[in-house]
Amino acid sequence: MPNGPRRARIIRWIPGRRWLRVRPGLWPLATAVILSLVFGGIAGGFAGAVATLLITRLERPAAQPAGPGQPPVQTQVTLTEESAVIRAAEKAGPAVVTIETSASAGRSLFRLGTEVGSGVIFDPRGFILTNRHVVENARQLTVTLADGRRFPARLTGIDPFEQSDLAIVKVDAGAELPAAEIGDSSQLRVGQLVVAIGSPLGTFQNSVTSGVVSALGRTVQVQRPGRGLVQLRDLIQTDAAINQGNSGGPLVNSLGQVVGINTVVAGEAQNIGFAIPITVAKPIMRSAVEEGRVRRPWLGVCYFMVTGELANQFQLPVDYGAYVYCQDANQPAVLPGSPADRAGLRERDLILEVNGRERVTLTVLRSGRTFQVEVTLGEVPAR
């Protein structure tokens, strides 16, 4: 059986351990920091399957040039769903790869022998983003490009977040490779067109399926060999068909930009698949290219993202930010010895803003008083 999306059971959202997200326009330069708030959780589209996207394009017809001071001629171009899928596949397809793994005896995720998954080239120097469960414990990796060329690959690193399912591998092709354009998954909307590309069943290389964003912020529970049940959070739910072998392949928007990495499918339903948002992957993508290894900065708190409903439930004075709190009585909200602990953060602090990267300034609300805390981030401990 090829490596592919693991069958998952959807569970209810647990607010005490959700990854902190940036409030649009509020926390500049915070993406890498926010995704590092670990110890208990991970951190205009089409309106239906027959919708039509209308694009207004500015152009100057050669036969009727606009004179000085005259506005450019506006032409309305209709882009159908069919042509949108074609354009997205043509743009992202060349960067999608098939990954064959040979597992060491007794350590294969599914069975002994060769397994197959997918991946996407995100840097022309050969860096490939894929799923952890595709390459973990692999003894040998082989990557097949969309044009049929094959290269041995090496594992750059596995995302240290236990609640993540991401990894990066690299090939040395001797020349630049086609790299996918990376999008912004935080801008996705329910109902938006998305396209999944990968190698289902390990045989049908670079297959394309399309669907919509069915929901955002989903939580699923999966079985990770040797680690028991693991919860993956803030996932993109889609009805684009995802099958065994699609794991690690990209989920792209109508512009061909990668917005997610296909990961799991629901085991007792059809066309319910889940992808990890690309914003979750960006920090490890950056560290792989800049440092040649995968790492994440680390604060060391358990928290949930504040909404209006939760603000009322916990009687909070604002409806945004990160509330330092853990519902598990056996798990501290601030990990002892962590950067957050050394900086003096406490349970029930409300983090309102984050600024910086390795050394960050947190704006914190505590007992009605707002103040700033300087924190030097650590590195997520390997597990």
- For the termini, the CA-CA separation is 28 Å
- The oligomeric state of the chains shown is single chain
Task: Provide the β-strand percentage band.
Answer: 35-45%
Total of helices? 6
Total strands: 22
Query: What characteristic shape results from the CA principal axes?
Result: globular
- CATH superfamily assignment of one domain? Trypsin-like serine proteases
Q: What are the low-pLDDT stretches, counting only 5+ consecutive residues below 50?
A: 7-68, 104-113
What is the CATH C-level name of one domain?
A: Mainly Beta
Q: Largest sheet, if any?
A: 7 strands, mixed
Query: What is the fold-level CATH name, i.e. the topology of one domain?
Result: Thrombin, subunit H
Mean pLDDT: 78
Radius of gyration: 22 Å
Overall SS class:
mainly beta
Proportion in helices: 10-25%
The string of secondary-structure elements, in order, is EHEEHEEEHEEEEEEEEEHEEHEHEEEE
* CATH architecture identity of one domain: Beta Barrel
